[in-house]
Structures are given as structure tokens and as C-alpha cells.
């Protein structure tokens, strides 16, 4: 083992854990019934749409 330590494994482990969490989240959502799948789909479909015609950001709509 190197005397200076070495923390590269922590980054690789964090990437692996994040990927596993995402995988199990997708598998869990896919195992739900059709109503819940539809609700999740609708949430992501309308999440970033503006309800008003005004700008929701810092750049005004002309």
C-alpha cells in the first residue's frame, strides 16, 4: 500500500453506488402498477413546462 494513502477507490465506489441506486430505482418504478407508472411519466412530462406565458427564468420572453 502506498504511504500517501490513495483515495481514488472512494470515487469509483461512489460512482458504483450511485449507478446501483439508479438501477434499483428504475427497477422499482417498473415493478409498480400502471397507475403509478402513468403518474411518474406525467410528472416528468410536465415538470419543466411553464403554466403561464411569462418567463420563469432570468431571461424575459419577448
UniProtKB/TrEMBL annotation:
* This protein's GO CC annotations: membrane
Q: Membrane-spanning residues where?
A: 12-30
Coarse class of the primary localization is membrane
Keyword Ligase (UniProt): no
InterPro entries from the xrefs? MotB-like_N_dom
Compartment list: Membrane
Q: Which UniProt keywords apply?
A: Membrane, Transmembrane, Transmembrane helix
> Which residue intervals define the domain Motility protein B-like N-terminal in the entry?
3-46
Q: By its UniProt entry, which Pfam families does this protein fall under?
A: MotB_plug
In its UniProt entry, what is this protein called? Answer: Motility protein B-like N-terminal domain-containing protein
Amino acid at each position: 500500500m502506498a504511504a500517501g494513502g490513495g483515495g481514488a477507490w472512494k470515487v469509483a465506489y461512489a460512482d458504483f453506488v450511485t449507478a446501483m441506486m439508479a438501477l434499483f430505482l428504475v427497477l422499482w418504478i417498473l415493478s409498480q402498477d400502471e397507475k403509478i407508472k402513468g403518474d411518474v411519466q406525467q410528472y416528468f412530462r410536465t415538470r419543466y413546462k411553464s403554466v403561464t406565458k411569462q418567463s420563469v427564468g432570468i431571461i424575459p420572453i419577448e
